Structures are given as C-alpha cells and as structure tokens.
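User: What would this chain look like folded?
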Amino acid sequence: MDKSYSYPIDLDWSQEEMVQVIDLWRMVELAYEKGINREEFLKKYQTFKKVIPAIGEEKKWGREFESISGYSLYKVVKEAKESNYKTIKL
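Assistant: Here's the prediction, encoded as structure tokens.
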C-alpha cells in the first residue's frame, strides 16, 4: 500500500501524545501488513486511550485514520481483545 498519507493527529496534543497516537496508527498498519504482538498492541492501545479517553473521540479518530489508510482501528482492537493468539493479523 502507498504510504503517502499523513497520520491523523491533533496539533493541540503534546509531542509525547502525538508520538503515542502515531505509535498506535503504526501498529494498526502492521496488524494488516505483517501481524503484530497482541500484548504489545494492547499496551499501546491503553496509552492511546490516555490521550483519547472518550469512545466518541476514539471512533472519530479511528474513522479518520481508516478513511486515509484503509485500515480499521476498531477491527484491530476487537481482534486483540477477543483473540487468545499471541500474534494477530487481519
């Protein structure tokens, strides 16, 4: 997939918060492209939830990311929470 898109971020976030959100976007991409460690993803997701705690905001950002990347945050989170496998791949 062509990676010529920008990750959706809020310029009001701190540098650290931007890095935490971008880390999660990268994990979502990898879940589709190569497969990821489920526990590592869940840890990054918990960090992401500290930046974006409201479910409505999470959905908004997830939709924005999916519209530009084609990758669904929701599907990766669902798979990570429901799966017992060490590695997840969509």
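The helical segments are 15-33, 38-51, 55-69, 73-82. If you want, I can go into more detail on any region.
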